[in-house]
């Protein structure tokens, strides 16, 4: 019988189960056996977990093969809870339990008094139920109000009165989460938030694999894989993990944020809700996806953002969803069947950015909105540098020849005059300006950008849009990139964005 498969005809009694040849194994051995089979069959291990192929997943596989209890240690938004919940993939499809048992007793070796009594009374006729792998996982968020009764259990006086049993009878015990996860996986999220005395109560479970409830002389050698998650910030500031408990956690696995933009984009694409119905179609060019995930990368490097708190992957997910929503609103208002997001739509996503970053003191002085805009601008600037030649104005070069005529170049010596951006900069220097909004129709949006001389050529040459509907987006991105490199001024008036000459803007502001 394969380890992950139950018999085709599920036995309904202990006698039928014994005849089927079923053999129970400890849960950690079960996980180890299934992982070995997955590795041999080249099956994906924890599908949907992106960016951890060479870091977290090898350590996780080692922990399972070693039959370890382990902890995932990392900042928020690093898929710790997702990994813990995906551990059920290492369990068998279903296992037999004593029917009606609160702690999923093994029919061949029951632990609780009720099941032992029934096994003695009925023998091979003892009813058997089958438990699916998802039902064998329990999770508890560690909060200061968690009690030992929640985790281990307590006496239930109502049960005693209903069944007319003495309070000294073991069958009046109401079992907690850990006994109810017998033969399964129990996860505790944010372990440092658990009170010290509760952490002490976990020691015996992890070391001796038994529990004691009130004054009952009951010993339950539980078969459970205990896993944890923790945030380093909580680890040092809000709470702590007591040394004896930390010593009993066999493996500590460090998680991290995506190392590359490609991994980040894959995660955002997998988790964000952008395939919607009942509204105009929104096409998401690669450029928009790159900008959104670049915002998260920029926030993780910003001097105004508290890096010890981390910047969750949920920032990019929520931001992309807001961008799509803003594009939907515009398409509905203009009666368009489809639309493409714009750079100005990114500013509509600022609520998703500002709600997911913690600021240091200097950032608090700037304000959340200002820091959010700064981070978005830095993301555009960094991405602009990937696709386009250097746009930063350079200092005048020192003249080595006594006469300008000898070089044939006259006095033109600045980077802005010598780069590909000169036609665009010159157009603005003549007093022209380009005004766009996130609500104008696609035709008006394209027409407003097409007025800028040389802009289309630069955008098409370097960004290579996939279709004509993406060209205006590419053109707006060029303008925003030039603004972030101080070659073009950008001014917001109500809901309108105006790009204009930088020097003219400076003089007017003075």
Question: How would you explain this protein's 3D organization?
Answer:
The model is unreliable at 401-417 (pLDDT under 50). 43% of the residues lie in helices and 12% in strands. It is built from 23 helices and 14 strands. α12 (261-271) packs across α13 (286-299). It has 510 residues and is of the alpha/beta class. The chain has a 5-stranded parallel beta sheet. Strands 12-14-13 form a 3-stranded antiparallel beta sheet. The protein folds into 3 domains: 14-254, 3-Layer(aba) Sandwich (Rossmann fold); 261-387, Helicase, Ruva Protein, domain 3, CATH 1.10.8; 413-509, Arc Repressor Mutant, subunit A (Orthogonal Bundle), CATH 1.10.10. The chain has helices at 14-20, 27-40, 56-65, 80-86, 113-122, 148-151, 157-162, 177-180, 196-208, 232-238, 243-248, 261-271, 286-299, 314-334, 350-354, 361-366, 368-387, 415-418, 422-429, 442-450, 455-463, 471-484, 502-509; strands at 70-73, 94-98, 128-132, 137-141, 153-155, 173-175, 184-189, 224-230, 251-254, 281-282, 338-339, 434-437, 488-493, 496-501. It starts with 13 loop residues before the first helix and ends with a helix. The chain is elongated, with a radius of gyration of 31 Å.
